[in-house]
Amino acid sequence: MSEHNGPENRGLDGGPDETVEVFTDEVVARLEQDAKEIISRYPKPRSALLPLLHLVQAEEGHVSKAGMRFCADQLGITQAEVNAVATFYTMYRRRPGGDYQVGVCTNTLCAVMGGDEIFSALKEHLDLANGETTEDGKVTLEHVECNAACDFAPVVMVNWEFFDNQTPVTAKRLVDDLRLGADVAPTRGPASLCTWKQASRVLAGFDDGRAGEGVQAAAPSLAGLELARRNGWTAPDPNDLPSPSQGEEGAK
């Protein structure tokens, strides 16, 4: 997929850096077609950088030097500008990882409900530290600040699909099934998981046709809506809102 130049260096994230410098001509020719489609969606080409980074991540499973150079060439910007974005967002891997990224929420509510316990159990069970990958290349483990599913805490995500109301026991069973190649179904959404590379391609904007599969919003997420319907509550009319001064007077 790529050509190698020079000795191995240390990465910007402190880990081993890739010696990859450029994609092969075959890879560039193939990715350019997708890149043109992505760039055409935006009024200014440089606005396409985020999905382009997902595109190159779908090629190698992480954003390498070759991937950043490809993005820079497609957008007419510097590699430094690409690197600044790729190292800012945590959804871009800077080194190779597993087929399945298991993210355990350790933010406030999930932590209180058992997220920290789940993360500790998985680290011991898999013999991994945060951000490390199992030797078989199947699972990368990471703690996540928020999986945006507090109503189902504690939550684990695998390649951005939800596994709700987890426990140390169910989480260990989940990673074992992933490593064994067993059929694994998220709590909500599609009936099966895609790989990390496939998920990255979807995030680049190429629909896999599965966005509408399965349950999208379960009971805890809809509780407020159901309560409002039962009581006849509606949102305020945006054309008939009190002025800021009226609000201040009411507060007094």
Number of helices: 10
Rg over C-alpha atoms, rounded to the nearest angstrom: 22 Å
Structural class: alpha+beta
Helix content: 40-55%
Strand residue content? 5-15%
Structural write-up:
The chain is an alpha+beta fold and 252 residues long. The protein contains 10 helices and 6 strands. The protein has helices at residues 25-39, 49-60, 65-75, 79-86, 108-113, 115-126, 168-180, 196-203, 219-231, 244-251, and strands spanning 2-4, 20-23, 100-105, 139-144, 156-158, 161-163. The N and C termini lie far apart (67 Å). Helix 2 packs antiparallel against helix 3 (65-75) and helix 6 (115-126) packs across helix 7. Strands 4-3-5-6 form a 4-stranded mixed β-sheet, covered by helices on one side.
Question: What are the SSEs and their pairings?
Answer:
Blueprint: E1 2-4, E2 20-23, H1 25-39, H2 49-60, H3 65-75, H4 79-86, E3 100-105, H5 108-113, H6 115-126, E4 139-144, E5 156-158, E6 161-163, H7 168-180, H8 196-203, H9 219-231, H10 244-251
Parallel strand pairs: 3-4
Antiparallel strand pairs: 1-2, 3-5, 5-6
Helix pairs in contact: 1-2, 2-3, 2-8, 3-4, 6-7
